[in-house]
Structure formats: C-alpha cells, structure tokens
Specification:
Elements (H helix, E strand, L loop, with lengths): L1 H28 L5 H12 L2 H11 L3 H26 L1 H21 L9 H17 L14 H24 L54 E6 L5 E4 H6 L3 E8 L10 E10 H8 L7 E6 L4 E5 H5 L5 E6 L2 E2 L9 E3 L13 E7 L7 H4 L11 E6 L9 E10 L5 E8 L5 E2 L1 E2 L9 E9 L2 E11 L21 E7 L1
Parallel strand pairs: 1-10
Antiparallel strand pairs: 1-2, 3-4, 4-7, 5-6, 5-10, 7-8, 7-9, 11-12, 12-16, 13-14, 13-17, 15-16, 17-18
Bound molecules: the ligand Nc1nc2c(c(=O)[nH]1)N[C@H]1C(S)=C(S)[C@@H](COP(=O)(O)O)O[C@H]1N2 and molybdenum atom.
The ligand Nc1nc2c(c(=O)[nH]1)N[C@H]1C(S)=C(S)[C@@H](COP(=O)(O)O)O[C@H]1N2 binds next to loops.
C-alpha cells in the first residue's frame, strides 16, 4: 500500500515535470503549443454544441477555467494510475507515458496554424518525465516484485517541475501586455451620444475592462504589430497584403457601435458598446475588387477561427470596420489586438473576427466557417432586444417612486420606442436616451409608482421599421434568442 502511494506520487511528479518543461519550451514555440493548452483547444473544437451551451450556461465566462481544471483533473488521475502501475510493471508505466505524450503531440501539431515546432514542448517534456521516472524507479524491489521508489527522485521531479513551470508561466505573463503603439487620430471622429447617468443602469459606452469576452481561444493570441500582415485573397481582382502601419496610414474613422453575441439569453449581458477606431472595409474591399459571385467574406484569425460575412454587408455603406482602437486605446489583447472586424448589425460570430490575419473572398456555397459548421445559422442579423437593468431581479425597492431603466438595441434598424408594464397591465411609454446612429443600443428609463408587494416588470422594444420585439421565448441556437425580459421584485 505504501509502495503504491509513493508510486502515485512518482506518477504525479513526472507528469508535473512534463508539463513544467513543456511550459518552459513553449516560451520559444508559442503558448498555443503547450500540451495543456493544445489539448484544451482540441477539446473546445470537438465539443458538441449541446455540451458547449451547457458549459457557457453553467460556467459563463469562466467556461475556459472550468475546462482547464477539468483537463487537469483527468491528467492527475491518469498520472496517479500511471505511477502505481509503473512501480509494479515499469514497462507499462513507460508505455502510459508515451501514450500521454502522443495525445499531447497529436493535439499540438493539429491545431490550426501549427508548424512542426509545435511538437517540441510535448516531446521535450515527455522525455524529461521519462528520465525522471527511470531515475525514481532505478532500483529493483527487495521482494523481487517491481521496483523501489526513490523518494528523493520524486522530490527532485516535483522541484524541477515547479522551477520550469514557474519560470515558463512567469515569463509568459511578463510578455503578455499590449505592445506599445500610438494610434493616429481619426479623420472622421465619432459623434458621441450622451449618457442618461442613472445609477445601476448600464453605461452607454462600456469600459474596455468591463466589455464581455467570447471566443474559443484558451490563451489569448499575442501578435507582434511589426510582423503583422493582413492578406486579402480569394476571388478578388487584386490580392493584397497589408502591414499594421499600412492600415494606420489609411484614413481612419471612429464610430460608436454596439457589439452583440448570438449566445446572449433574454436578460443577458453579452453585449457592449465601444468607440471603435478603424479602417472602413468598404473602401479596402473596393480596391481589392471582389469578383462576381464572391458573396461571402471569410475572415480568419491567427488561431484559425473563421467567420463568414455577406460581402454586401461590408460594402453597403454601413460602418464596417477593420478596428485597431477601442475607446481611445489600441485594442486590448483579449479583444483582438492588433486588428479585428466590427460590422454593425451582425452578431459577433458572423462578423467580429479578433486577431484578424486574412480576408478571403469566397461564397456561401463554397465555405462554412467555424460556428456554421457546428449548426449555427449562416446569416445572423441582430434581433431586437430589450433588458431591465434596474431594479435587479428579486430586489426589494422601497414602495413609492422607483426608477426602472435598461437598454434596448436593434442595430441597423434603430430603437423607436421601449415600453414597460407592471403585472401584465397596460404598456407604459418610457423615456429614451439620445442616440446618434441606429448602430448602438439605447438607454431607457421610466418612473414607477410602486405599491407594496410582489410585482412583475416586463419590457419590450419597437424598432424604427415599426416591428415590435416578439414575445415568444426562444433560446439562442441557431440564430439568436427572442422573448421579453421580465423581472420580479418586492416593493416594501
Ligand atoms: N478569433 C476569434 N474571433 C472571434 C471569436 C472567436 O472565437 N475567435 N468569437 C466571436 C464572437 S462569437 C463574438 S460574440 C465576438 C466577441 O467579441 P469580444 O470578445 O471582443 O466581446 O468575437 C467574435 N470574434
Ligand atoms: Mo458570439
């Protein structure tokens, strides 16, 4: 029993060493080649839609942390078993280690954009773990069955794991700030909408640090702006390659635009408004000259993610941008530094590619991008949506005058009115914030004379075409949720 316990420790120590060494080597080959990240990424891509929805619903924006913890736990159990087996049958132990290495290798080299060097972290890590295992089990057991476990060897493995992993992790983090760049002023500045300034109400412009984040990247890609290239290719008259500076040298515009995720549930907060600084896509695409039939622009990120946007949406005069700035700063790394797309009126998964490196003129019949392959709709204009931010669900406001307020959006169409009703009564007109375009959300507020007791507040919006937001509740899959948001409160 004691021998098994020390064997288990040896297994965990060697696995930790493999990961630590791999982490250190991945400083040279890129963080996405670290086996933990590569395996995690492969799991993300292979996860069926229902499980992914479950993860997002259950863990929210911590879904990636949950995945890493899950992967780590499986690994831990595997290492324990491997160690116990290795003490009795060393060869089986090595075979297990090799299997574990093969898994990491397979994931690392098949990640989009991975070169042969992607194999290096796992290879070096597994070899190091092999040596550590051999050293720890170098003497035969006195009873002739299996091997002795050298505790000093195991301690050494743990020590080396801590040193290599710690160094790898710290150095990787030190390199993780946004590189210093200075952005030019826009030739056409944003017209700025005023904020209603109501406490508890979502601010009109969302600060970068509070902006929601949705993507499949387990580690945020870090692109050196000096080496950055954007390719425009496929069915175009004139293929182009642009540097970051080429983009900054073009006339830039700045616009307030509300970005929205298709996974946003009724009442959800996967939306935000920023002042985006960028190159109008319209003009750039005209220069490249899309050929007849090129009705889809496939945008690709440095980590191989793809979105497909109707070419018409990028050229019909709306403010479709190659964004380089967000609220007066260079794009934060997690929001797509150095360049991303922003297209008013379309959900993020069909338009808002972060860490953008390629625009390929294609057609809807020729190519299905990342989420379309997984069953989401090919075309995904943003649906009309309204939300009550205050009072919060299940809160206990004082009876008397209570401010009810929230936001509503219907990008491209614009919000014309927002109405609220209490306990299924008559709809009440709310006061709307001023907006300068149809591409942002609109704040709204209403003064409610609340009587004591439990009440249900409901909200609905009407867009400028006169269409009332549908009441029917639908979940986000496959093209966005619908339904009226309601909040239950008890006035005291
Ligand atoms: N490279 C890349 N870009 C991406 C995604 C992604 O997974 N990878 N997700 C898209 C989705 S689904 C949304 S809603 C927006 C979110 O942008 P944000 O994280 O800046 O809010 O990014 C889009 N761009
Ligand atoms: Mo999204």
């Amino acid at each position: 029993m004691r021998k098994q316990l020390t064997g288990a420790w040896a297994g965990v120590g060697c696995a930790a060493l493999a990961l630590g060494v791999a982490e250190l080597v991945s400083l040279l080959t890129g963080s996405r080649t670290s086996p933990l990240v590569a395996v995690g990424g492969a799991v993300v891509d292979a996860t069926p839609e229902w499980a992914k929805e479950f993860a997002i619903r259950t863990f929210g924006e911590n879904d990636k942390l949950a995945l890493l913890i899950g992967t780590g736990t499986i690994l831990f159990v595997f290492a324990v078993v491997l160690g116990i087996v290795a003490v009795r049958w060393p060869r089986l132990g090595y075979a297990g280690l090799a299997l574990f290495g093969l898994l990491g290798l397979a994931a690392a080299v098949t990640r989009p954009g991975a070169g042969p060097v992607a194999a290096l972290p796992t290879l070096v890590g597994v070899v190091a773990a092999g040596f550590a295992l051999r050293y720890s089990l170098r003497t035969p057991a006195a009873d002739g069955v299996g091997r002795n476990v050298d505790r000093r060897g195991v301690l050494l493995a743990f020590g080396a794991a801590a040193v290599t992993g710690g160094a790898g992790f710290t150095l990787a983090r030190r390199n993780s700030g946004v590189p210093k760049v200075t952005l030019p002023k826009p030739v056409s500045p944003a017209a700025v909408a005023p904020d209603l300034g109501i406490p508890e109400l979502t601010t009109f412009v969302t600060p970068n640090k509070d902006f929601y984040r949705v993507d499949t990247a387990l580690v945020v890609p870090r692109i050196d702006p000096d080496g950055y290239r954007l390719k425009i290719k496929g069915r175009v008259g004139k293929p182009m390659t642009l540097t970051y500076q080429d983009l900054l040298d073009r006339p830039l515009v700045e616009r307030e635009i509300t970005l929205t995720c298709v996974s946003n549930e009724v009442g959800g907060e996967l939306a935000g408004t920023a002042r985006w600084l960028g190159v109008p896509l319209n003009e750039l695409l005209k220069e490249a000259g899309p050929q007849a039939g090129a009705d889809q622009v496939v945008s690709r990120s440095s980590d191989g993610w793809t979105a497909g946007t109707p070419t018409s949406a990028l050229m019909d005069g709306r403010d479709a941008l190659l964004a380089v700035g967000m609220n007066g700063e260079p794009l934060p790394l997690e929001h797509g530094f150095p360049v991303r797309m922003i297209v008013p009126g379309l959900y993020g998964y069909v338009s808002a590619t972060k860490w953008l490196v390629e625009l390929e003129l294609s057609s809807f019949t020729d190519f299905d991008p990342y989420w379309v392959k997984r069953g989401w709709a090919e075309q995904a204009p943003i649906k009309t949506f309204s939300r009550i931010d205050t009072p919060r669900p299940l809160s206990r406001p004082k009876s008397g005058m209570v401010t009810v307020a929230g936001v509503a959006w219907a990008q491209r169409r614009g919000i014309d009115r927002v109405e609220v009703r209490v306990d299924g009564g008559a709809w009440q007109e709310t006061t709307l914030g001023t907006v300068v375009s149809t591409d942002t959300w609109r704040q709204w507020a209403w003064r409610w004379d609340a009587t004591p007791g439990r009440h249900t507040l409901e909200v609905r919006a009407t867009d400028r075409t006169g269409a009332v937001q549908p009441e029917e509740r639908r979940t986000p899959f496959p093209d966005g949720a619908t339904g009226w948001h309601s909040v239950v409160v008890t006035a005291g």
